[in-house]
Each structure stands twice: as structure tokens, then as C-alpha cells.
Amino acid sequence: MTIKILLTSFQTWLPHQESNSSDDLLSHIEELEFPGISLTFLRQLPVDVDGAKGFAIAKIEELQPHAIICCGMAESRTILTVESCANSYYRSSTLDSTTLAEIESKSERILLKTSVDLEELVAGLAVTEISHDSGKFVCEGLYYQILNYLQSPGSSASLSHHINISCIFVHVPILTPDNLADIVTDFSQIIEKIAALKLLGAEKSGFSKKPDFWV
User: Which Pfam families match (predicted)?
Assistant: First the structure.
């Protein structure tokens, strides 16, 4: 059984940014081989929730992947961070002038959580931690919209797919010669662990141990 995983990245959004580290990371991942895993790349999504959501959901409906790994840049962070949840209040684009104080003052928030066991996912990884703050910007907006799409009753994803589609969001720090190897290694293991989770879920009656690529 081949596990299909969709990976997404963003464009840049500020003048000083020569590239988006999430897209830089996916360019390195594209060069690697993952036996038993089929990766589809949806790179350089627009930094706009509605635009990014449109491209992502169209690709999900076309591909019907087993899992989705969304990626975004976190310039202030130094390690990979896997986001546990997404909030319904966020700035929707670079033109959205809503302040963080205004966002945080909202009382009727909806919080959606990933179905993936993140404690198990990050166990043993060298430069990856769990985060509970997706940033209140387009990264959080896309994550929220995809989780909402996947978890909504009656969506084409829930009706037509025998295996529930899992989704996580990974924030990527600026890549440097010093951290590149560790980050690529950890992210590769995240891909393999997600695939193993989906494989075990699909074939649980036939597996007595975890696949060889589980670390």
C-alpha cells in the first residue's frame, strides 16, 4: 500500500525575504526518496487565506491524500514546530490590518485540533517540538480552514475517503548551513511517521509491529 501525502508551502510576504523557508525545505525534500510514500508538492501558495485555501482544497479533492503536511515560515523560531491547533481568529492576508489585541479580544473563538498524536510524532526528533500557537496569520488561517474542511460532516473528504485524512502544520525556521541537515532529517522522519500512522490505521489487523521506517 502506498501512502499519499500532500505537502504545501508559502510564498514570501515581506520585501526583505529572498525566499520562504517552508518552500526551501520542500525543495530539499523533493530530492529525497521515500519508499512506499508518494509525495505531492503544492508549493508557494499565496499569502492569503482565501487564495491558499482554494488551491489546497482543490488539490485535496483531486488527490484524496492520506495525510496533509502544511508548512510555513517562522522567522523568529530556531527549530521545527508542529502546531497542535488552529484558531478561527487570524489575519487573513498581508492587507488585513486587524491587530493582535483585536484578535485576542474576540470571545467566540473556535479552536480546531489535529487528530495526529503529536507527542508520539515528535518523540525522538532532535530539533522538533510541539507548539500551541500557530501565529494568528495566514499560516493559522490555512491550517484552520483545512482542519475545518476535513472535520466538517458531509465534506467530500469525509464521504469519499475510506481513511480519514490527517493534517498537521509545521513551522520552519530560517534554514542555515548549521541547521539544514538536522531540519531535513527531522522533517523526513515526520513524513515517515505520518505515513506509518496511516499505514497502521489502514492495515491494523495485519500488523504486529511498526513498519521499518518508524523511528
Answer: Peptidase_C15 (PF01470)
